[in-house]
Amino acid sequence: MFALPEPLSAAKSWLDTALSFFYPNVCQFCSDESATKQEGFIGANCRAQLKLIQPPFCEKCGLPYEGQITTSFQCSNCRELELQFSKARSAALADAMLLDIIHRYKYSRALWFEPFLAGLLINAATPGLLSEQWDLIVPVPLHSLKRTEREFNQAERLARQLSDAAQISLECRLLRRVHSTRTQTSLSRRERIENVRKAFALFPGTRLNGQRIVLVDDVLTTGATTSACAKVLLDGGAADVCVWTVARGGFNPSGV
Residue 181 maps to which CATH number? Predict the structure, then answer.
């Protein structure tokens, strides 16, 4: 194993000690149990509360269902929409705890949560990706104004870690966001679709040649954003587009 030179090793030890003073090994969600930097500062008890997604779920968007369903099916959302990706899957349900962690990660620069979030994505997505033939991992892009405001794109950071784990090339200069859209949170399903319909484009001069692409984002709700991205990629020459996200949100279509 490669060993750091003694001065660098000492500096790293000092840095780790300093960081532990500002970021003690305590769960940053409940503050009641220990959690390390490598764990993303989320403790074992909080991890145990996560609702990891298991079958049965919609074969198109991955929305999970309770009960005994032994045949493949599509949910009502997918039956009513023309989603452009072939399938979408997520690691866990977007409950209050997971959404709070994601919001703090991307809006408050709580980057210490990244190992936890990336770990959820990697553990759920990597086995399937390794057994299939995918050519590129592409993060859902932010508009330049939002990226400047946040100083990073959470989807890109998570996609980079999945790329390393699955050994699938990461491509961040393929898809771009050309319009700064309203946040999707308060919009109805139809409003979400219209909001992002023309929001994405390929970089100028880019053309795909039958590549199979994995789109990565933090949360999937109706699939409007990732479907808009998938349409641009397919129109640009991709053979297939699937989606992986950390969290799967529920959606009440009553406002449609």
Answer: 3.40.50
- What's the chain's length in residues? 256
Percentage of the residues of the chain whose pLDDT score is greater than 90: 69
Closest-CA residue to 165 (of 113, 211, 127, 135): 127
Mean of the per-residue pLDDT values for the chain?
A: 87
Domain span at residue 184 reads: 38-66+73-251
Average pLDDT score over residue span 151-180: 96
Q: What is the pTM of this model?
A: 0.86
Total of domains in the chain: 1
In 63-215, where does DSSP find H-type helix? 76-80, 96-107, 114-131, 144-150, 154-166, 189-196
Give 103's contacts (C-beta < 8 A, 6+ positions apart). none
Residue 12 inside a domain? The answer is no
What is the per-residue pLDDT across 228-248, written as a single tens digit (0 to 9) for each?
999 999 999 999 999 999 999
